[in-house]
Amino acid sequence: MEKFGTEIQKLLKAGFALVVLTAIFFVFQILTDIKEYRYVGRDVYPSQTISVNGIGEVYAIPDIGQFTFTVRERADTIDEAQANATRKSNAVIEALESRGVEEKDIKTQDYYVGPRYEYIQVQCITFPCPGEERLVGYEVSQTMAVKVRDLETSGDLITAVTEAGATGVSNLSFTIDDMEAIRADARKEAIVDAREKAERLADDLGVRLVRIAGFYEDGGYGFYEERAMGYGGDMAVMQSAVAPQLPAGENKITSSVSITYEIK
User: Residue 119's pLDDT is what?
Assistant: First the structure.
């Protein structure tokens, strides 16, 4: 009997311990739920919103220019064509560097080496009349881009490269070196424009703006640049005697944003 009573006491102690542990668990769970209660609904999209678009425009004077030129040579052998092209390219680069253009601002965009063929028609009495493709030599061309940091020298540099042997000059354009800063200014203007539109719309609707519920920025910034017409082929050589006047003008950078406001 005494042994039976001891077993009963052990069972009661075990049950009590289980009840205590269960109570602690529920208390902890309740405290956790209370702690997280203030976050409930934060991720729920507000049911009452208005959306507006904003446009920002910034005008900036270009401080960087860029143009490309090509050196092209033809010869009976690859070695001869490459040697002639290299000699002429070096002369053009030397002309640029002598006028203050740094080596880092001259970059090769394309280099081509290939055979040249001519299609020769043979006399025949049948139709279609067969022809013959004949190797007549090789061609080497190198296209380089030049960054111009002193815009007032743009015309002189174009003249220099044509006189040094470049067979074509093209794609002269003017832009801004630090475009990110200009784009940031355009985005600020767009955000201000959207905010003003939202405030007017909220006033017309008789509601109040609470907070921003969504934001979207158009990644394709509008960029309108002044571009000068380039010279190409023989025209570059014909007009190389006089350095042209090339006004840089003014560039316009635009930004577009869409903002959604929660209203109340």
Answer: 79
